[in-house]
Structure formats: C-alpha cells, structure tokens
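Final report, closing paragraph on structural work. Over the funding period we assembled a curated collection of sequence-structure pairs, and we close with a single example.
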Amino acid sequence: MNLFRDENCTMMFQGNPPTVFVEDYIFFKASLTNAVTGIILQAPNCWATPTSNSADTVRYHIIQEGCASPLDPGKIKVVKNYKTYYISGGVASFIWTNMTVQMIYIHCEVVVCVNSANNCTGPTCSSRKKRLVAAPNDPQRKLYSVGPIKIASACDEIEPGMCSQKCMVVNGKPQCTCTKGFHLGEDLRTCVADVQYRVVRVRERSDNNVASINVVLFFILTSLLCYVLIKVCERKN
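Its predicted structure, as stored:
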C-alpha cells in the first residue's frame, strides 16, 4: 500500500516523512501486482492512527464496512473498492487532540475475492445497506499499513520561502501576509506595493536624490570659493 497526493494515485509523496498541511488530502492505494480477470480487491475497513500501531485505541475511521465512514463523510473519499484489482481512497489530513507530534498512519484490512457467480459485490453505501464478503475474523483478511505522514506546524516545513514577505499558520494552514503598504497578489504568495505607497516611495527617492545633489553642489561651490580666496590672498602677498 502506498500514499499519494492525488485522487488518481499518480503522484507519490516525497520526503522522509512526507509533510502536509491540515486539510490537504492524503490518498492511499493497495493493489495486486497485475490486473487479473475475475480478481477483485476489497477493503472492508480502513482507519488512521497517530502511531504505527494499527491497534491503537486512538483512531480515525476512513472506511467502515466497505463504505466511507459516516462520522466525517465530507472529509473522506472512497475512490475504488469492491470493483477492480485495487482499492483506493483518501482523507483530508487533520490534527490529533492533545498530541505534540502530529503523525498519520493509515491501515486497511484487504480481502482478495475471486469473482465467481458475482459473489464479490460490494455494499450499497448510499443507503447504508452493507453486504460484506468476509466476516471480521475471516483469515482471508490481510492488514496493510503505510505511513507516517507528518502534519506541518510551520510555514517552511513544506516549501521554504513560499511567501515573499511573511508567513503564518492559521488553523493549521499556511497563510502569506504582507507588511504595511503592500497587499497580497493573485498567487496569494507575492506581496505587491499599493499604488499610494509606490507614489510615496518614488517621491521619497526623488527627494533623497535632490538632497544628495544639493550636498554635492554645496561642496563644489564651497571648494571653489575657498580656492578663489586663497588665490586672492596669494596675489596680495
């Protein structure tokens, strides 16, 4: 079983461990090596834990009895289950309560079903009527685990320098912010100077240039005056 960033399971996570922000989706996929006619992969149950222990009492249910867990349906996606030679799904990442280090491990019970006489049909999840192929103590069920995924707590844990000025974590998500006189651009990362601020800065630079020129002219005129006075004094002597 492997972890992916996308629903199609084409982009695997990078890093050791991979890092995501809260609500970023974590997709998982378990599959046979090759597609075999009549072989269906089933995942009656999948869940997440904060440790590598699949029996950890602290857990978050993802798939229950073949369907997306009803406890948090808006955050769970069951992409393939009871349909083909692989199972896949995803869950929006979250924060465990009262834990300093935030890690997510995913575990799935997987059954290989030989589809004869249409006996690998999965549950009807929309009406919550379920028809499980294997009983909980069925020896055909194999447990697969994968992880961890780390939940980021700081802006630079995933992408250093993602913000052109300042970055802060708000409700577990990174948010770029700007100093006074700037606003966030369309990419939500780059700070762009306000028009009024630009005018002020141009005027400030212009005023500074004029002041510098005045200092130079004053120095030159003073030097010339001193030179003239010295020559006049030499002639008198």
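The first helix runs from residue 195 to 236. The first strand starts at residue 2 and ends at 4. We thank the funder for supporting this effort.
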